[in-house]
Structures
1.
Amino acid sequence: MQNTEKAAHTTYYGMVGLQHRGQEGAGIVSVNMKGDVADFKLHKGHGLVTDVFTPADVQALDGVHAIGHTRYSTAGGKNQLEGYQPFCVHYRMGNLALAHNGNLSNAQELRAFFENQGVLTQSTVDSELFLHLVSHSKRSSQVDQIFDAMTQVEGAFSVVLLTDKFMCAVRDPNGFRPLCIGRLKGRGPGGAFPPRKRQAAAVGGG
């Protein structure tokens, strides 16, 4: 969710509608702008969306931007909370949060490359590799770093990223993984990036 009041609240209900896509765990990252400082908040855990989040948890995730994820493991990290998404990190260009759906066919090669470079990883899921590709990019702007990273991955994937200044969504060149762009009716410039159109409709979008 982008530029939407109570973004985490709307994200939560969108994830409830996506529960069939992952029952192992769930998480939400929200961003609240305090002047020029972006305050990132993360909450994630094991189980169904309704088990992971209490009303107080959702209320604490204040801000007008949020991304969420429901976990169904296909490559590593089934019982590792560290591998549950969204990921949220800080690097030289600022904060970076990421939610990813899909599989990377060159994940083994990328992981071996970073391990040989002495890079420390927190999980065995291939989603984490996106973060390392972005942080190691030599490009000067954060947007260019993100798209540089995307040119180095192969497979079927959809990714939503949230930074201090913008949100962006990327799909694999072949469009194997679903990704939609929606707007919330009557709620200003707010937008959403659900995997399918019916999830946008479920939270009042189109």
2.
Amino acid sequence: MARFISLEEAKQLKLDKRYCTKYVLSRDVIRQLIDFILENFKIVRNQNGGILFSYHSIYFDTSDYKMNKDHIEKKMHRQKIRVREYESGDKFLEIKDKNNHLTTKKRTQINSYDIHDNTNWVSKNLLYDTKDLTKKLDVFYYRITLISNNNLIRMTLDLNLRYFNYSNNKIYYFDDTIIEIKRESTEKTFIDEKLESIDILPQHFS
């Protein structure tokens, strides 16, 4: 039986510094895991009482895609920068910093999608050339957020993902579900072990 918690309750598990693991699951695998998930997690309700949160993110990079290259080359210290609009309509300029597998997120609330309106904040927090940043991807999806019963793990399920690529002006659709497991420890969680037991292995993508 599904159990629910409010968004305010879920915010108590901040995890601004965290270790993350991502998986890609088909709809069939999700169906197999439903009972296990409902037994071990609480579902976060949005402000309207539903469970789907809409997300819109614009990702930026340098003209030579330095951030993406650093990710592909698996540099120990790398970043990505985006503007994200949340379900509430609030917009934040966010920088995710990954250093030796530890992910830290910094953000500041903004009014527009133009990051150049916040040059000082970006320059202070970004490793890359701020003058060279342009839009690369426009991403839309719905998210279900779950909190483990012991309140130590946040798990998100991203659905119906579509994105616009500014380099070729094309829209792409992604049918599978992206699961991300976020926790304070480097150790595997019980959900990681469950996924690996059915031959679902972590995926390394940004």
3.
Amino acid sequence: MSRLIAFGCSNTFGQALPDIHPENKVPSKFAWPALLANNLNMECYNLGIPGASNTLIMDTIMMFPFNTGDIVVVCWSYSDRLHLLDANIKSYHKRDHNLKEIVPWNKSRRTKNYYRYIYSEQHHIQMTTHFVKYVDLYLREKQIKTFFQFSCEDNYFNPLFIPIDFSKIRSIHPFALDDGHPGVGAHQELADILYQHILSKNLTIK
């Protein structure tokens, strides 16, 4: 069976959806990757990581052993996040690593100083643009069919992306159980849109 492999942050993982809340230890079966894979009759690999930056998403993609026939959907995250990568870490999904993160909700002195003295929105946008283009070239070289979207409104009009406003979709549906993340309805609508888009490409799925 062909594999649908999804990369992203908590909006891919399915944070706070009813089957995994409040532990949120494994990806939700109500998240868009599982729903999309079911529609396509494919095996689902949901590699979303709650809190992931685009740096982390890119590195997770670099680590993954792809097979011929895989379909990849990357739901890129918010550009203001940053992870400092460590070559000794071989997987980010066990959550037992001490990867340094610079994210808005982290109140460490390092993070506060970064956002106060170093952070540049334009620089982070440019970094995300480079990550996206690098991953696109990397997966094209492997002949892996890939689809990109953003989990937020920051699409930067990049022509590589499916024109989906996930922020708008999640705003018109009830939120997940933490009253912040996309709820079941938003995940279902996104899965339906992605399904129609993938079907329109006339891909051969075995």
